[in-house]
């Protein structure tokens, strides 16, 4: 029995270690067992040279990102968490519907695991798709405590090449502390080529009446867009030392080798503490099939993919010719806010890689409205989104000069207004965002439907666990309260905003 346990463990972790970039199908042996056991041990960690700077943070099992976890849908998962970080810690399983006491939120779903302590997380990972895991204590995920988690659906078609790409940014810790106090002098901005029209389109505020009319993205192609980016200092921005894909900064990132004729599936995760990323692949458009691991209503073909903090996208492309191409992610305004990985065929070993254009001007961007066929809501429609039993409007706020707090309805956690629901109720949460930042709002323990974005109704709602609520805009979520009962936190996934108060909870209450 003990030997059997050992085999389980060693098989799971070694296959994860070998397959970091390219994922082979789960072996029959791995797919057939009832339970997958892993051990995740968190410790201080000095990052390797391949990130380009000196940095000591934290890591699961001595690597950043932590081990890639893979299960087949239907298997039971059991993680023994050992905490040697020197401070309390927990693990949150992002995007999973699971028993509330396995959700890993300190003081809400469990007492934090003390330094030197252990905790067993066990549940059946659900739903299938691309999930992830990270510490939910303080700034620990920014220090390195995160990793990807694939819940594989055996009914899904496989690509010839499947790859997990995790974008993350290594923070300057002084700058992170200054940002938490609202006194940072780092700037935030938008990548080159995203003009005001482009930003409006991303926010869902463009005049985009139909799928057919959206190729121009609200005028982005019609005007000579500025090559220069917009940038400003807001007090809450974090300065980053390094921008990484799978724990390395280009050119130290491991190249992805492909062959002509292959279909490639990229599983992209934005694990940055605060930055939205814009991903492009030179010479290719990307076919986006899943958002946050959940199947989109229709696949969407785009030139560039905007990924908010904690969001995931599955993006596919075909290799139709020999070549070498850079997959690149831009974050913010600065030239060095750039992450790259080389994708090439064997024939192109000595060829200089093709880079994406320096600007996003004219690029067809993935937007929620594009994927969900957004349409303007006719004025005067009494109930344009359908009836819900529980309706709640949450006003996002904060970021005022001299005040580090980020708020919901003017309050900071734990004083924010809670949302009480009963099992079986249909719940609608409407966000308004008068601040000048997008907020990646995340609900634990549920997959909700995004039904509205800045006045556009999505004809095909998107199933997600995190959405960017645009600056100056709105978002509406809808979900059936059928998760295991408990306290499910709802918060901004920008780490600075979360730590500065932008969190509330959806509470399952018993009928009186
Ligand atoms: Cu936020």
Explain what the structure shows:
The chain is mostly beta strands. Helix content is 10%, strand content 39%. It contains seven helices and 33 strands. The longest helix is centred in the N-terminal third of the chain and has 17 residues. The relative contact order is 0.13.
List the SSEs and their pairings:
Layout: H1 2-18, H2 28-32, E1 35-46, E2 56-60, E3 69-72, E4 76-83, E5 91-94, E6 118-123, E7 129-135, H3 140-143, E8 146-152, E9 161-171, H4 173-180, E10 187-189, H5 196-203, E11 231-233, E12 240-245, E13 256-258, E14 263-270, E15 277-281, E16 286-291, E17 294-302, E18 305-307, E19 312-318, E20 324-330, E21 338-345, H6 368-372, E22 374-376, E23 390-398, E24 406-408, E25 419-421, E26 426-432, E27 439-443, E28 448-453, E29 456-464, E30 466-469, E31 474-480, E32 487-492, H7 495-499, E33 503-508
Parallel strand pairs: 1-4, 3-8, 9-14, 13-21, 23-26, 25-33
Antiparallel strand pairs: 1-2, 4-6, 5-7, 7-8, 9-12, 10-11, 14-19, 15-18, 15-20, 16-17, 16-19, 20-21, 22-29, 23-24, 26-31, 27-30, 27-32, 28-29, 28-31, 32-33
Bound molecules: copper (II) ion (CU).
